[in-house]
Amino acid sequence: MAHMESPVSHPNMRAEAADALTGLAGEPIEFYSDITNALHALEDVARPAADYVGVSLADAQEAALVTAVFDAWLALANEVAPGAGDATIRATPGWSAVERAARAARERMAANDRRFTGE
Fold it and tell me: How far apart are CA 38 and CA 31, in angstroms?
């Protein structure tokens, strides 16, 4: 497979977004296993998502998938008290939508990364 140049100008920000999404998808990542930290990290490097295409996100599809994560979180945030812990958040019925959205965004990013690196 041919190597393609990455369309992102800030690969470190992209890696941070990918790690945050991995944590939100329920896979343990040292720092991002905390929901609040993962959301803040993702917000710092990819929100509003459309503004980060070419910066930390490769394309409009990644941006749409990251936006879906925030949309799912906003719907869930109305179901939990401010400052609720991770266990409470994960037990809320709306959490599965956040997890699914994060997994879809992370999978798209991983597929794009494989394209760019030729792996």
Answer: 8
- State the Cα torsion 108-113-115-119 to the nearest 10°: -120
pLDDT digits (tens, 9 = 90+) for 67-118: 999 999 999 998 898 889 899 999 999 999 999 999 999 999 999 999 888 7
Check: CB of residue 108 under 8 Å from CB of residue 23: no
Q: CB within 8 A of 20, min separation 6: which ones?
A: 29, 32, 38, 39, 41, 42, 45
The residue extents of the domains of the chain are 11-117
Q: Quote the pTM value.
A: 0.90
Q: How far apart are CA 84 and CA 35, in angstroms?
A: 10
Cα–Cα distance for residue pair 77/4, rounded to 1 Å: 39
